[in-house]
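Record type: monomer structure entry
Structure origin: computed from sequence
Chain ID: A
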Amino acid sequence: MSTRAAEDRDPGLQPERTRLAWRRTTLASTVAALLAVKTALHGGVSPVRIAVCAVSCGLWLAFLIVAHRRIRTLATTSRPPVLAPAHATAGALLTVALAVCAVALVL
């Protein structure tokens, strides 16, 4: 990268884009959790469907907490720290687990 390009770069743009990406992912996770509730209640209520729905809602809440912490960190500091591997892993695992619950409800 040239010196001129480094001077022109606005360091505030990357954290803003990352914060918006976390918000979009949170919105998508919310939609998935709501669809899980709808699917669980649509085909007749059974204990298994209710249990999977409850787990989906718990996973959504856990993801919401992880995302909110990162969004808050990105919004409050001028140079946010790197995302900790534990938080990145938690976010990824929660997303995959929510997808597995969705598949379980569809089958």
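Annotation 1: The helical segments are 3-8, 13-42, 47-76, 85-106.
Annotation 2: The mean pLDDT is 83.
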